[in-house]
Amino acid sequence: MTKTPKSPGAPLSSMDPAMLRGLTQPRLSRSNFLRGGAAGLGLLAMGGLPSRAEAKVTDWHAWWAEQKPTKNLVFANWPYYIDVTTNGSDHPSLDAFTKATGISVKYLEVIQEIPEFYAKIAPVLKAGQPTGYDLAVITNRWELEELILQKWLTPLWKAKIPNFTKHASSNVINPAYDPGNKYTAVWQSGFTGIAYNPKLTKREITSFEDLWDPAFAGHVGMMNDNLELGSAALLKLGIDPATSTPADWAKAVATLQDQKSKGLVRQYYDQSYINALENGDTWISQAWSGDIYQANEKGYKDLKFVVPKEGIMIWHDNMCIPVGAQNPLSALEWINYYYTPTTAGVIEDYVDYVCPVPDAKAYIADTLKDPAVANSQLVFPSDATYAKSHLFPAFKNYAEYKAWNNTFNPIIQA
């Protein structure tokens, strides 16, 4: 799914926070790839084939020591994923970065879908050539894991990003998909849980078990993203998706088949799930937190988002430096600059995802005077919510990734 744009027609300080809240959504266009339909599948199957890119560097410490500072940075990101001024063409955070460092930023909104972007850069990286990007934002799914496995990302020089160590949330440090943050630093995050209309369900919803309640037959919405779908079933069974095994997946698909065979599921939805909730076609559904906040602001006050008792899924978009980057020190300079309460606060007050810099909350509240964002559980979740969050599986190789697809795709496709 392409990111929903915010209107650039108002300055950041005056923009209605209600218009900014609906952006805590995973991108379904990325998810489409998990169902096996995207270009680049063959690239992902390369599974460890050597490339000239990885053969070039054997000592990254020495490599970093040889790098010379430049005054340029090429930053690849998703559309509508950074602060924008009134005219819609300038980015205050990037302008401030240039003023502070002298580094000019070429900011490119070229990532419409991760599979397509991966398919574009993978052959270049395999050939040992520069991608043209010094920094790119990649979600913690198979594409990122493959970039790491193929050694197509540059290890971060931690001494150059002390603000990450100082200000990063404990929830984005040492993720399972990148132990020790060797290659990545989180840009933004988001949650996947359950939404429902209590006027239709006639009771409170607290558990993934409620998605299997016969009382809601024909009015349950499930996602057609097999990673989201399979993870929900695993949580229902009390299994952490991040550490799940193929045997666990078999149990999860069995419970999904039971749900389907009993006629409980109205549809396996893409982004249109929110319309089904709003018009009452579904009473309860898998949902993204920001969608429900935005629906509430649009007038659908009956819809509620809940963190199920079994837990909630969290995803991370990550800044990383492709091998061959021409301005790697500039990329580190930006990461370090971003991980301050001021810069993260300015960006967060616009994009409103889950912020990786907790101290940005005070800056947004006290300096930017935007309590709606500062106090939002969708932007600065409580420790209790974080404690119940789970990462998606980190596949060890292509065969494991393919096994996941083969397990869960039939539920959606049949």
In short:
The chain is an alpha/beta fold. It folds into two domains: 17-190 and 315-380, 3-Layer(aba) Sandwich (D-Maltodextrin-Binding Protein, domain 2), CATH 3.40.190.10; 191-313 and 405-413, D-Maltodextrin-Binding Protein, domain 2, CATH 3.40.190.10. The protein contains 19 helices and ten strands.
Primary descriptors:
single chain; 414 residues; D-Maltodextrin-Binding Protein, domain 2; ten-stranded mixed beta sheet; globular; disordered N terminus
Q: Number of helical runs?
A: 19
Shape, per Cα inertia axes: globular
Instruction: Determine the oligomeric state from the structure.
Output: single chain
Q: In angstroms, what is the radius of gyration?
A: 21 Å
By DSSP, the count of extended strands is 10
User: Which percent band covers the strand fraction?
Assistant: 5-15%
Q: Which CATH first-tier class of the largest domain would you pick?
A: Alpha Beta
Q: Give start-end ranges of low-pLDDT stretches.
A: 1-42, 45-55
Main sheet summary: 10 strands, mixed
Kindly give the count of domains: 2
Instruction: Measure the end-to-end span.
Output: 23 Å
Query: What proportion of the residues is helical, as a percent range?
Result: 25-40%
| CATH topology (level 3) name of the largest domain | D-Maltodextrin-Binding Protein, domain 2
Global structural class: alpha/beta
* CATH superfamily grouping of the largest domain: Periplasmic binding protein-like II
CATH architecture of the largest domain: 3-Layer(aba) Sandwich
